[in-house]
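Hi support team,

I'm filing this because I wasn't sure whether my run with shikimate-3-phosphate finished correctly. The job status page said complete, but I'd like someone to confirm that the output block is well-formed before I use it downstream. Pasting the exact inputs I used:
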Amino acid sequence: MRARSLPVDRIAGTVRAPGDKSCSHRAVMMAAVADGESTVTGLLEGEDVLNTAKAVKALGAQVARTGLGAWTIVGVGERGFSAPAGDIDFGNSGTGARLMMGLVGGHDVTARFTGDASLSSRPMERVLKPLREMGVSAETAAGGRLPAVIRGGKLKAIRYAPPEASAQVKSAIILAGLRAEGITVVEEKEATRDHTERMLRAFGVEVDVEERVEGGPIVSIRGGQLLRAIKGASVAGDPSSAAFAAAMTLIAGEGEASVTSMLDNRTRTGFFDAAKEMGASLRVEGDGQATGEETVQVVVLPSRLKGITLDPALVPSMIDELPIFAVLASFAEGKTRVTGAAELRVKESDRIKAICAMLAVNGVEVEELPDGFIVTGLGARGVPGGGLVEARHDHRIAMSALVMGSAAKHSVSVDDIAMIATSYPEFFDHMATLGASVQKDGQ
Ligand code: S3P
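And here is everything the job wrote out:
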């Protein structure tokens, strides 16, 4: 289904950030292997997480929904996963598929992993290479893509330095390390999101993290530790989703908006730091806690923005926010340069190409770089709009385009909004609450 976002003057109101996608996947996976019954609230009920829930059910965990974002999960504990009856479909989710490869790898089962067109075009070898070294057997389609047959078993610990800065690779190895013999060590190239480490600790697992001056942290985990179920676990709000409401307010003519319960973790909040550097009026106030994490309320005002050269060191902490950051840069004065973001090429779409096409079709000058892009900002209200953006099976491109339309001179359309439900099912409700004007095809 298509949608069109019309220009509006005022963005105002308060929304609660939807459950963090990364933390939701991890909470479900960890509860699924823990010993006993866990209860979790604040879970994101997007399609990606629902697919992870189906996966752990197929492997023997019991999952029951007790309310909105509230689930009870009985883990398999010492007994481990049992063989699934059929294929496990991870839909659009790289996190679901890759982390589960690690988790399944430590169990004596065989499972065939499948995914949608976008996921089936994404590289899996980055995870399977270290997992094979640990003793997992994996057969993939050509080019290391899904479908993949993963056969777990007795694993041995490894020491591994992933060539890419990837929390998914790190997490898959750590999760396999839970049942490996010895101490598994991951040396990170750069610090990436650390939710696996934090949540494992909440489930009673010892994880050692050594910070380094040069390079990212070194994470170690001793095999043979059994997770203890938690009653009352909770998931913080997603900064990657909150960034859409924040950006829409920053580029608006007038108003003020707040996003509450947002995860406050320096491995995730680079977008907000970068926006501040551009001149964004953003205030952050502590508003609570979730399992292993703190949360904040972010109060945002429309702001006059100036282009910046983004520090590549900030990229891992805002990797998923770069599409909406490019929209922000379009409404800033002067050029914004993003480099060090080659990983964008292997996200739900080739996001460098998708971002450049989204901007260009709406009258914004943008230069594609191998590892980023340069946007020539047109200032507040300076973006012509009027374009039809191709979503390319990518939820964040679709949402970014609709935010762009709220402040452009002419409406912005997107050819497919279906994928938005993978990460942010409340997106259209939140847009409406804040005063955006979005029309879905035929409505
Ligand atoms: C995620 C890690 C990131 C991110 C993805 C979620 C995670 O991917 O882009 O949306 O939950 O670990 P990479 O690890 O491939 O960078």
